Amino acid sequence: MSSFNPSAPPMPNPSSSSSSYNSSNYNSNPSNYNPNYSYPEPAQSYHVNHQSYPTPNPTSTLLPYGGGGGGGGAPGYGYSPFPPGTDPEIIRSFQMVDRDNSGFIDDSELQNALSSSYHRFRLSTIRLLIFLFKNPTELSMKIRPGEFAALWSCLGQWRAIFERFDRDRSGKIDLEELRDALYSLGYAVPPSVLQLLISRYDNGGGQRVRLDFDSFVECGMVVKGLTEKFKEKDSNYTGSATITYDDFMTMVLPYLVTYN
Question: 80, 142, 222, 234: which could join 241 in a potential S-S bond, CB 3.0 to 4.6 Å?
Fold first, then answer.
């Protein structure tokens, strides 16, 4: 039996300069977690469903995840690969690295594309992002334009969260700030799990571990992805689920393989 209980209050409104969020509301004692389990609502502004793919245009015989006709088309492509209304900067960033106009980009190409507007993510982070955003039926570790647009948008929202909780504007967040940032997203992660997450970035020098944006994205995406996988098994939203060995391995191993 596997049990996890990250209940949290409603997520903040990104359009508001103030927030009702108060880190003192976070109870760090895992024995006092609310037994009435509440998963983060996907409809909330900061909760991006990163495996939600553009609906295929039923009249199109081109890429199955081309995002439909009428929007985002660009010179050099024989199709309209981006969802309608896609920011031109996103389209340009994709085209700059998709030099063969294949409609797919791999890990090194995605790393270069994101470097222009975010920063140069580590390949381990890039591979995790591809795993989470790509069409799950796609065997290769590549993403299409619609998936790239969703990934770009998600990173923008996670960047806003990171900057909000980087209170000293150092460009890094510590364990407590990571806890508060994840909590604002709807994930009340137990202290033991937080410590396990952040231990990956401990260089053994005895100093307090602090995460840059790259590491924050890694931690956050692992928490988000595994929580969503667990939700699939917890159909009654009780915070508990019975998982077979095969299901457990299938759930966890992809994160370990792409994350390392």
Answer: 234
